[in-house]
Amino acid sequence: MTSSQHTTKPLLKAVIPAAGLGTRFLPATKANPKEMLPLVDKPAIQYVVEEAASAGLTDILMITGRNKRALEDHFDRNYELESLLAKKGDTAKLALVDASSNLGQVHYARQGDPKGLGHAVLCAAAHVGDEPFAVLLGDDLIDPRDPLLTRMIEVRERFGGTVVALTPVPADRSHLYGCAAVEPTDAGEDVLRLTELVEKPAPGTAPSSLAVIGRYVLDPAVFDVLRETAPGAGGEIQLTDALNTLAANGEPVHGVVFDGRRYDTGDRADYLKATVRLAAEREDLGPEFRDWLRKFVANELTD
Ligand code: UTP
Question: Which of 117, 239, 264 has most ligand 1 atoms within 8 Å of CB, for mutation?
Fold first, then answer.
Protein backbone atom coordinates (compact mmCIF):
# COMPACT_ATOMS: atom_id res chain seq x y z
CA MET A 1 0.00 0.00 0.00
CA THR A 2 1.48 3.42 -0.92
CA SER A 3 1.13 6.68 1.01
CA SER A 4 -1.65 7.92 -1.26
CA GLN A 5 -3.60 4.73 -0.58
CA HIS A 6 -3.44 4.67 3.19
CA THR A 7 -6.72 3.57 4.70
CA THR A 8 -9.03 6.37 5.82
CA LYS A 9 -11.13 4.13 8.07
CA PRO A 10 -11.73 5.64 11.53
CA LEU A 11 -9.51 4.63 14.39
CA LEU A 12 -11.33 2.38 16.85
CA LYS A 13 -8.87 -0.26 17.96
CA ALA A 14 -6.05 -0.15 20.45
CA VAL A 15 -3.34 -2.78 20.82
CA ILE A 16 -1.56 -3.03 24.16
CA PRO A 17 1.59 -5.18 24.12
CA ALA A 18 2.07 -6.68 27.57
CA ALA A 19 4.02 -9.84 26.85
CA GLY A 20 7.54 -8.68 27.75
CA LEU A 21 9.50 -10.51 30.44
CA GLY A 22 9.89 -7.46 32.70
CA THR A 23 13.38 -8.54 33.75
CA ARG A 24 14.16 -5.14 35.27
CA PHE A 25 11.57 -5.88 37.92
CA LEU A 26 12.63 -9.37 38.95
CA PRO A 27 11.81 -11.08 41.23
CA ALA A 28 8.42 -9.27 41.36
CA THR A 29 7.78 -10.28 37.75
CA LYS A 30 8.75 -13.92 38.10
CA ALA A 31 5.11 -15.03 38.34
CA ASN A 32 3.23 -11.75 37.76
CA PRO A 33 3.19 -9.47 34.73
CA LYS A 34 4.91 -6.12 35.42
CA GLU A 35 1.82 -4.42 33.96
CA MET A 36 -0.10 -5.61 37.05
CA LEU A 37 2.21 -3.78 39.47
CA PRO A 38 0.02 -1.23 41.27
CA LEU A 39 0.50 2.51 41.22
CA VAL A 40 -1.05 3.28 44.61
CA ASP A 41 -4.09 0.98 44.28
CA LYS A 42 -4.60 0.52 40.54
CA PRO A 43 -2.49 -1.71 38.29
CA ALA A 44 -0.39 0.14 35.70
CA ILE A 45 -2.24 -1.56 32.84
CA GLN A 46 -5.60 -0.12 33.96
CA TYR A 47 -4.30 3.44 33.54
CA VAL A 48 -3.30 2.51 29.98
CA VAL A 49 -6.67 0.91 29.16
CA GLU A 50 -8.43 3.98 30.62
CA GLU A 51 -6.29 6.23 28.40
CA ALA A 52 -7.30 4.26 25.30
CA ALA A 53 -10.98 4.37 26.30
CA SER A 54 -10.89 8.11 26.91
CA ALA A 55 -9.43 8.62 23.40
CA GLY A 56 -12.50 6.77 22.05
CA LEU A 57 -10.75 3.42 21.51
CA THR A 58 -12.98 0.84 23.11
CA ASP A 59 -11.87 -2.22 21.16
CA ILE A 60 -8.74 -3.24 23.01
CA LEU A 61 -6.45 -6.11 22.12
CA MET A 62 -3.93 -7.02 24.75
CA ILE A 63 -0.90 -9.00 23.67
CA THR A 64 -0.04 -11.30 26.52
CA GLY A 65 2.43 -14.08 27.13
CA ARG A 66 3.42 -16.16 30.08
CA ASN A 67 1.68 -15.33 33.37
CA LYS A 68 -1.25 -13.79 31.49
CA ARG A 69 -3.99 -14.85 33.88
CA ALA A 70 -3.81 -11.90 36.23
CA LEU A 71 -4.29 -9.50 33.29
CA GLU A 72 -7.30 -11.35 31.96
CA ASP A 73 -8.84 -11.73 35.40
CA HIS A 74 -8.41 -8.05 36.15
CA PHE A 75 -10.54 -6.93 33.19
CA ASP A 76 -13.12 -9.66 33.73
CA ARG A 77 -16.08 -9.69 36.12
CA ASN A 78 -15.50 -11.06 39.61
CA TYR A 79 -19.01 -12.18 40.59
CA GLU A 80 -18.03 -13.49 44.01
CA LEU A 81 -16.43 -10.19 45.03
CA GLU A 82 -19.23 -8.16 43.48
CA SER A 83 -21.97 -10.04 45.33
CA LEU A 84 -20.06 -9.84 48.61
CA LEU A 85 -19.64 -6.06 48.28
CA ALA A 86 -23.27 -5.68 47.20
CA LYS A 87 -24.42 -7.64 50.28
CA LYS A 88 -22.33 -5.38 52.47
CA GLY A 89 -23.76 -2.33 50.74
CA ASP A 90 -20.23 -1.09 49.93
CA THR A 91 -21.18 0.77 46.77
CA ALA A 92 -17.91 2.72 46.56
CA LYS A 93 -15.76 -0.42 46.37
CA LEU A 94 -18.31 -2.11 44.13
CA ALA A 95 -17.95 0.79 41.68
CA LEU A 96 -14.15 0.35 41.70
CA VAL A 97 -14.45 -3.37 40.96
CA ASP A 98 -17.02 -2.68 38.23
CA ALA A 99 -14.95 0.04 36.58
CA SER A 100 -12.12 -2.29 35.57
CA SER A 101 -14.51 -4.70 33.85
CA ASN A 102 -16.37 -1.99 31.93
CA LEU A 103 -13.65 -0.15 30.07
CA GLY A 104 -14.52 -1.48 26.65
CA GLN A 105 -14.20 -4.79 24.91
CA VAL A 106 -10.91 -6.32 25.92
CA HIS A 107 -9.56 -9.12 23.73
CA TYR A 108 -6.38 -11.15 24.08
CA ALA A 109 -3.81 -12.55 21.68
CA ARG A 110 -0.86 -14.56 22.79
CA GLN A 111 2.73 -13.91 21.82
CA GLY A 112 4.25 -17.35 22.29
CA ASP A 113 7.82 -16.10 22.49
CA PRO A 114 8.68 -12.51 23.44
CA LYS A 115 10.58 -11.83 20.21
CA GLY A 116 10.31 -8.06 20.49
CA LEU A 117 7.81 -5.22 20.25
CA GLY A 118 7.55 -5.51 16.45
CA HIS A 119 6.69 -9.18 16.81
CA ALA A 120 4.11 -8.38 19.53
CA VAL A 121 2.43 -5.86 17.19
CA LEU A 122 2.41 -8.43 14.39
CA CYS A 123 0.45 -10.76 16.70
CA ALA A 124 -2.40 -8.20 16.40
CA ALA A 125 -2.69 -8.50 12.59
CA ALA A 126 -5.67 -10.88 12.48
CA HIS A 127 -7.65 -8.87 15.03
CA VAL A 128 -6.86 -5.44 13.56
CA GLY A 129 -7.43 -6.34 9.90
CA ASP A 130 -7.34 -3.48 7.41
CA GLU A 131 -7.83 -0.61 9.85
CA PRO A 132 -5.56 1.97 11.40
CA PHE A 133 -4.93 1.27 15.07
CA ALA A 134 -3.21 2.69 18.13
CA VAL A 135 -0.46 0.94 20.09
CA LEU A 136 -0.06 1.81 23.77
CA LEU A 137 2.79 0.16 25.63
CA GLY A 138 1.43 -1.54 28.71
CA ASP A 139 4.18 -0.22 30.99
CA ASP A 140 4.24 3.39 29.74
CA LEU A 141 1.96 5.79 31.59
CA ILE A 142 0.83 9.12 30.18
CA ASP A 143 -0.85 11.42 32.68
CA PRO A 144 -4.52 11.83 31.68
CA ARG A 145 -4.16 15.60 32.19
CA ASP A 146 -1.73 15.70 29.24
CA PRO A 147 -3.69 13.97 26.47
CA LEU A 148 -1.29 12.72 23.82
CA LEU A 149 -3.23 10.07 21.96
CA THR A 150 -5.99 12.47 20.92
CA ARG A 151 -3.39 14.78 19.36
CA MET A 152 -1.77 11.83 17.57
CA ILE A 153 -5.14 10.77 16.15
CA GLU A 154 -5.64 14.34 14.82
CA VAL A 155 -2.23 14.17 13.13
CA ARG A 156 -3.07 10.80 11.58
CA GLU A 157 -6.34 12.30 10.25
CA ARG A 158 -4.37 15.11 8.62
CA PHE A 159 -1.42 13.15 7.16
CA GLY A 160 -2.46 9.47 7.17
CA GLY A 161 0.29 6.90 7.59
CA THR A 162 2.09 6.47 10.88
CA VAL A 163 2.31 8.77 13.91
CA VAL A 164 4.72 8.19 16.78
CA ALA A 165 5.16 10.00 20.09
CA LEU A 166 8.51 11.69 20.68
CA THR A 167 10.15 13.14 23.74
CA PRO A 168 13.50 14.92 24.17
CA VAL A 169 16.06 12.82 26.05
CA PRO A 170 19.56 13.76 27.27
CA ALA A 171 22.38 12.68 24.92
CA ASP A 172 23.69 10.12 27.42
CA ARG A 173 20.33 8.28 27.37
CA SER A 174 19.69 8.20 23.59
CA HIS A 175 21.22 4.73 23.26
CA LEU A 176 18.32 3.34 25.32
CA TYR A 177 15.63 4.46 22.86
CA GLY A 178 14.61 4.57 19.21
CA CYS A 179 15.75 8.00 17.98
CA ALA A 180 14.38 10.09 15.10
CA ALA A 181 15.76 12.36 12.38
CA VAL A 182 13.11 15.04 11.84
CA GLU A 183 11.96 17.92 9.66
CA PRO A 184 9.41 20.62 10.56
CA THR A 185 5.82 20.60 9.23
CA ASP A 186 3.15 23.26 8.89
CA ALA A 187 0.91 21.41 11.38
CA GLY A 188 2.31 23.07 14.51
CA GLU A 189 5.60 23.11 16.37
CA ASP A 190 4.79 19.82 18.06
CA VAL A 191 4.37 17.94 14.75
CA LEU A 192 7.46 16.79 12.85
CA ARG A 193 8.06 14.64 9.79
CA LEU A 194 10.37 11.70 10.43
CA THR A 195 12.99 10.92 7.82
CA GLU A 196 14.82 8.20 9.71
CA LEU A 197 14.47 6.12 12.86
CA VAL A 198 17.33 4.31 14.58
CA GLU A 199 16.75 1.80 17.38
CA LYS A 200 19.21 2.14 20.27
CA PRO A 201 21.88 4.18 18.40
CA ALA A 202 25.49 3.74 19.54
CA PRO A 203 26.51 6.56 21.93
CA GLY A 204 27.14 9.80 20.02
CA THR A 205 25.33 8.69 16.83
CA ALA A 206 21.68 9.57 17.58
CA PRO A 207 20.17 11.60 14.71
CA SER A 208 18.51 14.00 17.20
CA SER A 209 17.64 14.28 20.87
CA LEU A 210 14.10 13.08 20.13
CA ALA A 211 13.28 9.56 21.26
CA VAL A 212 10.24 7.43 20.49
CA ILE A 213 8.01 6.72 23.51
CA GLY A 214 5.23 4.19 23.97
CA ARG A 215 2.35 5.55 21.90
CA TYR A 216 1.87 4.89 18.18
CA VAL A 217 -0.89 5.33 15.62
CA LEU A 218 -0.22 2.86 12.84
CA ASP A 219 -1.54 2.16 9.38
CA PRO A 220 -2.23 -1.55 8.74
CA ALA A 221 0.49 -1.34 6.05
CA VAL A 222 2.92 -1.86 8.94
CA PHE A 223 2.00 -5.56 9.16
CA ASP A 224 3.47 -6.41 5.75
CA VAL A 225 6.65 -4.58 6.66
CA LEU A 226 6.89 -6.34 10.03
CA ARG A 227 6.58 -9.73 8.32
CA GLU A 228 9.74 -8.86 6.39
CA THR A 229 11.63 -7.23 9.27
CA ALA A 230 14.64 -9.22 10.48
CA PRO A 231 15.61 -9.23 14.16
CA GLY A 232 17.54 -6.04 15.01
CA ALA A 233 18.90 -4.58 18.27
CA GLY A 234 19.01 -7.22 21.04
CA GLY A 235 18.04 -9.96 18.53
CA GLU A 236 14.40 -8.73 18.70
CA ILE A 237 12.03 -7.77 15.90
CA GLN A 238 11.93 -4.02 16.41
CA LEU A 239 8.89 -1.87 15.62
CA THR A 240 11.29 1.05 15.12
CA ASP A 241 13.03 -0.83 12.27
CA ALA A 242 9.68 -1.42 10.52
CA LEU A 243 8.74 2.27 10.90
CA ASN A 244 12.14 3.24 9.51
CA THR A 245 11.45 1.06 6.44
CA LEU A 246 8.09 2.83 5.97
CA ALA A 247 9.81 6.24 6.17
CA ALA A 248 12.54 5.10 3.75
CA ASN A 249 9.81 3.95 1.32
CA GLY A 250 8.37 7.48 1.35
CA GLU A 251 5.34 6.62 3.49
CA PRO A 252 4.22 9.44 5.79
CA VAL A 253 5.70 8.98 9.27
CA HIS A 254 5.11 11.85 11.68
CA GLY A 255 6.01 12.50 15.29
CA VAL A 256 4.13 14.41 17.97
CA VAL A 257 6.51 15.93 20.51
CA PHE A 258 5.24 15.30 24.03
CA ASP A 259 6.49 17.29 26.98
CA GLY A 260 3.82 16.25 29.49
CA ARG A 261 3.93 13.90 32.44
CA ARG A 262 4.96 10.35 31.56
CA TYR A 263 6.28 7.38 33.53
CA ASP A 264 8.05 4.29 32.27
CA THR A 265 6.72 1.97 34.93
CA GLY A 266 8.97 -0.85 33.68
CA ASP A 267 11.89 1.14 35.09
CA ARG A 268 12.18 0.91 38.88
CA ALA A 269 13.15 4.54 39.52
CA ASP A 270 10.38 5.86 37.25
CA TYR A 271 7.91 3.47 38.85
CA LEU A 272 8.74 4.87 42.29
CA LYS A 273 8.43 8.47 41.04
CA ALA A 274 5.04 7.71 39.51
CA THR A 275 3.83 6.08 42.73
CA VAL A 276 4.95 9.03 44.85
CA ARG A 277 3.42 11.62 42.52
CA LEU A 278 0.10 9.83 42.16
CA ALA A 279 -0.14 9.21 45.92
CA ALA A 280 0.74 12.83 46.72
CA GLU A 281 -1.95 14.07 44.33
CA ARG A 282 -4.73 11.83 45.64
CA GLU A 283 -7.54 13.55 47.51
CA ASP A 284 -7.93 10.73 50.00
CA LEU A 285 -4.29 9.81 50.68
CA GLY A 286 -2.52 12.96 49.55
CA PRO A 287 -2.70 15.18 52.64
CA GLU A 288 -1.36 12.51 55.01
CA PHE A 289 1.21 11.22 52.51
CA ARG A 290 2.54 14.68 51.58
CA ASP A 291 2.92 15.53 55.21
CA TRP A 292 4.91 12.35 55.82
CA LEU A 293 6.96 12.86 52.67
CA ARG A 294 7.90 16.41 53.63
CA LYS A 295 9.20 15.18 56.96
CA PHE A 296 10.93 12.22 55.35
CA VAL A 297 12.74 14.43 52.85
CA ALA A 298 13.72 16.85 55.58
CA ASN A 299 15.21 13.91 57.47
CA GLU A 300 12.77 14.34 60.29
CA LEU A 301 11.51 10.81 60.09
CA THR A 302 11.85 9.12 63.40
CA ASP A 303 10.37 5.68 62.68
P1 UTP B 1 10.18 -3.51 27.26
O2 UTP B 1 11.42 -3.79 26.53
O3 UTP B 1 10.11 -2.31 28.14
O4 UTP B 1 9.68 -4.73 28.12
O5 UTP B 1 8.99 -3.51 26.22
P6 UTP B 1 10.37 -5.97 28.76
O7 UTP B 1 11.19 -6.69 27.77
O8 UTP B 1 9.24 -6.71 29.40
O9 UTP B 1 11.23 -5.30 29.92
P10 UTP B 1 12.64 -5.66 30.58
O11 UTP B 1 13.62 -4.84 29.81
O12 UTP B 1 12.87 -7.14 30.46
O13 UTP B 1 12.49 -5.22 32.00
C14 UTP B 1 8.01 -2.49 26.11
C15 UTP B 1 6.59 -3.07 26.06
O16 UTP B 1 6.48 -4.02 25.01
C17 UTP B 1 6.02 -5.25 25.53
C18 UTP B 1 6.33 -5.22 27.02
O19 UTP B 1 5.40 -6.03 27.74
C20 UTP B 1 6.19 -3.76 27.36
O21 UTP B 1 4.85 -3.41 27.65
N22 UTP B 1 6.71 -6.36 24.80
C23 UTP B 1 8.07 -6.34 24.66
C24 UTP B 1 5.96 -7.39 24.30
O25 UTP B 1 4.72 -7.42 24.42
N26 UTP B 1 6.60 -8.41 23.65
C27 UTP B 1 7.95 -8.42 23.49
O28 UTP B 1 8.47 -9.39 22.87
C29 UTP B 1 8.70 -7.36 24.02
Answer: 117
